[in-house]
Design goal:
Layout (H helix, E strand, L loop, with lengths): L2 H13 L4 H8 L3 E5 L3 E6 L2 H10 L3 H10 L4 E6 L5 H17 L22 H12 L8 E5 L5 H15 L5 E5 H13 L3 H9 L3 E5 L8 H16 L3 E6 L11 H7 L3 E5 L4 H14 L6 H10 L4 H18 L5 H7 L13 H12 L3 H5 L5 H17 L4 H6 L6 H17 L1 H14 L2
Parallel strand pairs: 2-3, 4-7, 4-8, 5-6, 6-7
Antiparallel strand pairs: 1-2
């Protein structure tokens, strides 16, 4: 094969691994200019191109060229100083985009796109809402509030919105930031007396994507700044997208005025996927990563991993790695052996202590408080819910359940269960929260 054919095959390999826009923008401008037995020299438009590709798709170029020449090969990069007008223009756009997307080192994940997201019954509504927002900023649904349990695709969806918007509207200012990062920036701005710079940064955006907003609970100054940032963007009809592991009503230790802002637009939830949906996800991931995954193994993984999509993908990667290292094909018996440490949920006991811990973890309260006599608003619902779940999932008497909650009598437990049952019937969001917590506890 000549050098042009080798590079053509390398690009075909890359094209199968990334979406079309990423391929056209980042990989197509690269050229293979020299090739020896042990080394390939790639020409890139500039250093920024090289850095971006290596940061976002580490090892992909090495793998692509290696697959084309059928051997491992070292890569060297050469900066092409003689750029045409189109390349120069692209460089300016990309440099601007890098600055625009950065939030103290935080970028949109290029792999999280709508094309790589697998819709199903559990996430179809959230997926449709995210698509609508990406096509009509600040007009369709503002804010868009997406909630669901850990590892179900919230971060993927909000990154996909940002990536689609940048793809459509190259001059739009978009920022993705975790609530932890936002908190750190607020603290740093206060410490170094740079609050005006922070306000300028966030209030001049066209779209703000903030992930895991539940973590700003109990952070008064952060909530204050986010409240004013929210108002400033909303008044200018700029898009706000928020993700959380629970609906706005269930966000403990967050001010009511912020919760009310979160409910001004559209609230979309992501539920636990069905077995069929998990099979579809596994098949897509295996196809994307060129992993040979037999149907019986796919079903085995989909039926055994009940917690979240992230664990499902982790199992697939671990199986593929084991297969590559040992040369053994992937089978159900191999999966049982390799993944046995990930199926601990099957033997995890269901008892009141574990139920209390899970409820406390969800609501962000202390285990001691749920057993105490305090009757504050933040504790009543979690305590009643923990009693209700204890009654549902254990064989303990009402009296024994009451004792585990600081010596409450059986009448208190009965009252708590009735309150929860009523709230489940009247509030669909609360019903989903209850099921979400039970799914975390129940194997």
């Amino acid at each position: 094969m000549d050098i042009e054919e080798i590079w053509h095959n390398s690009l075909s390999f890359i094209q199968s691994r990334v979406n079309e826009s990423v391929f056209e923008l980042w990989f197509k401008p690269i050229k293979l200019v020299e090739l020896s037995e042990f080394e390939a020299v790639l020409s890139v438009p500039n250093q920024f191109f090289r850095d971006w590709v290596e940061d976002n798709y580490p090892g992909l170029l090495d793998e692509a060229v290696g697959s084309a020449v059928l051997r491992p090969i070292a890569l060297k990069f050469k900066i092409d100083q003689d750029q045409g007008s189109e390349e120069t223009k692209r460089d300016i756009i990309l440099q601007t985009r890098k600055v625009r997307l950065s939030g103290k080192g935080i970028y949109l994940n290029a792999k999280y796109t709508f094309e790589s997201f697998v819709p199903g019954e559990s996430n179809r509504f959230a997926h449709a809402a995210a698509l609508a927002v990406s096509e009509s900023l600040g007009k369709a649904y503002n804010p868009l509030f997406i909630y669901g349990d850990v590892g179900l695709g919230k971060t993927h969806l909000i990154n996909a919105i940002g990536n689609r918007v940048i793809e459509r509207l190259s001059t739009t200012t978009v920022l993705y930031v975790s609530s932890e990062q936002f908190t750190n920036e607020v603290v740093a701005a206060i410490r170094h007396e740079k609050m005006s710079e922070l306000k300028d940064k966030y209030r001049s955006l066209d779209m703000l994507l903030i992930d895991d907003v539940q973590f700003i609970a109990n952070k008064t100054q952060t909530q204050e700044e986010f409240f004013h940032t929210f108002n400033a963007l909303y008044e200018r009809q700029k898009q706000i997208v928020i993700s959380s592991d629970r609906p706005p009503k269930e966000l403990g230790a967050i001010t009511d005025r912020l919760k009310s802002r979160f409910t001004m637009g559209l609230i979309a939830d992501i539920q636990q996927p069905t077995v069929e949906h998990k099979i579809a996800i596994l098949q897509r991931k295996a196809e994307d990563q060129r992993i040979i995954l037999p149907d019986d193994v796919t079903y085995y993984l989909a039926s055994r991993i009940r917690s979240n999509i992230r664990e499902l993908e982790g199992c697939l990667i671990k199986l593929a790695a084991h297969s590559n290292l040992t040369g053994q094909p992937i089978s159900v018996s191999t999966a049982k052996n390799v993944l046995k440490d990930l199926f601990y949920d099957d033997v995890k006991p269901i008892n009141i202590e574990n139920i209390q811990k899970m409820v406390c973890e969800y609501y962000g309260i202390k285990l001691l408080d749920i057993k105490a006599k305090k009757r504050t608003k933040e504790l009543i619902i979690p305590r009643q819910l923990a009693m209700y779940i204890s009654k549902q999932l254990t064989d303990l008497s009402l009296g024994d359940i009451g004792k585990a909650f600081g010596g409450k009598d059986h009448a208190t437990v009965i009252y708590a269960c009735k309150q929860v049952e009523t709230k489940i019937q009247q509030d669909e969001g609360f019903n989903k929260v209850v099921q979400q917590i039970i799914n975390r506890i129940k194997p």
